[in-house]
Amino acid sequence: RTIPFAWNLITAGYVEQTIPGVIISIIGLLLFGKLLEPLWGTKELSKFVFIVNFSTSMCVFVTAIAVYYVTQQESYLYTPLSGFYGVLSGLLVGIKQLMPEMELNLFVLKIKGKWIPSLIALISVVVSFFMKDLVSYLPVILFGIYMSWIYLRYFQKRLETGLKGDPSEEFSFSSFFPAILR
């Protein structure tokens, strides 16, 4: 229903369909924003959230239409695809970029910041095979990771250098994968 209502591409990321989704989104934004805002500033963080949200929504929309045309199953057109998970996964990419060696304690595991987006992508794919209700979140999360990487890699203005993007080898797309898969 996005075609006559184009603003859905901007607002879909800010609409959660469940109470747990709202809680996860708020906590995630507070935690990840607390790490990134001092380094980026409020204006850049807001710009990042808007750009990642919009580009993720565009990609999810185009993918849903493409999958519909391939499968001819109308459920792909009418499944509500919304939520802040694309931006949250994008903020994790920001943490990967700025704090790759920072260790985060996740229950009993200590995981370096550089592996968190990849781990979230892997967990999302695996869980979507077993829990069909969560499949609709998968494109939002994966496109959120990819769109945020594109923005940070090629378009974000770096305050310290005045250049755009992060051309470092540590932030290349292949750095999202273990060395054996690169």
Automatic annotation (TrEMBL):
Transmembrane segments: 18-36, 48-70, 76-95, 115-131, 137-155
Gene3D superfamilies per UniProt: Rhomboid-like
GO cellular component terms, A-Z: Golgi apparatus; membrane
Cited Pfam families: DUF1751
GO biological process: retrograde vesicle-mediated transport, Golgi to endoplasmic reticulum
Domain of life the protein comes from: Eukaryota
Membrane-topology annotation of the record: Multi-pass membrane protein
Localization annotation: Membrane
Keyword set, alphabetical order: Membrane, Transmembrane, Transmembrane helix
Name of the protein in question: Peptidase S54 rhomboid domain-containing protein
